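User: quick one
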Amino acid sequence: MDFSAILRKRRTIRFYRQMPVAEKHLLKLVESACHAPSAANNQVLRYTVVRTPDLVQAVFYNTSYAGRVTPRRSPQWGVNAPTAFIAISAVKNGPVLSNMVYADAGAAVMSISFAAVEEKLGCCWIGAFKAKEVTELLAIPETEQILFLVAVGHPAETPVEDTIQQGESVAYYLDEFDRLHVPKYSVEAITRIL
Amino acid sequence: MDFSAILRKRRTIRFYRQMPVAEKHLLKLVESACHAPSAANNQVLRYTVVRTPDLVQAVFYNTSYAGRVTPRRSPQWGVNAPTAFIAISAVKNGPVLSNMVYADAGAAVMSISFAAVEEKLGCCWIGAFKAKEVTELLAIPETEQILFLVAVGHPAETPVEDTIQQGESVAYYLDEFDRLHVPKYSVEAITRIL
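Assistant: Done. Structure below.
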């Protein structure tokens, strides 16, 4: 798909159709992240693809979604929950992971999100999850630290982006048709030109 | 351009042709970042586009490139240096920026990097720069903290990605034709499937 179309179409998806995602499609998402830039090219990120329904369910119960519109955008298991997860962890190289590792992970998630649109999938970048429980469920090695989850599935909603100017509210909201609106600043609102 | 083509083609570019980048193209790059996901949709990132040659030069002298192959991939002003920069800063909301802000910035840079390929430009994500000096040069407000620079220009090199397996070196290197090779892990090398 054309990149400009992907850019327009990509939105965080929190409701999913209840059909499995093929392993090969999930690996396509991870592959897109493998090409991403990495500080000093160190590539400390590792990926755990979760497709087994019991495990997806267990991980799902340790995640939360869309705090601003709870519970109206909280998916329910067996109804509209994600059917896969990709966990992103980092190989530890000291007591605390550097900011650059989080930046690398953000770049990886962005690439995964674009690739998801290309594969006709949707995803949700999740920072709000019970890290200890998910680390145990997925048997993440002690040499690694889990950073983020990405929920993946076939989209069952079509959120809308609204352009806003400086000073307007960034709070996303549901309209009368239960459609999620995501306010995003215009270029002019947040850019200086020198 | 097709996303899969952009994904294959995108590489960090450190040598540039000496011709200016049109403002509208730089704003296209920032626009791509405006659509990116943001933790709780807070959108704390701000962008400073730098095109004025004197200012680009001043910023350039506060940046460094490709530590592993210094000085062979260090661009020189007037020869193959970037002709623009985009500075990414974040509105401060406490004494220390959270990891999520760095993750947001990583996502923004990834989107900018893809958009650069779409615009037939190249860019280099720079974490190694003199933050205090650049903050002063660009008059970044005290309410913000600069996180990253992205060097931008018309590409004058074509780096190559090499696929590596677990245990192989991630060190990028220059070959006998002065072409940069960037080893990237295969999906299998860094992915577990559950």
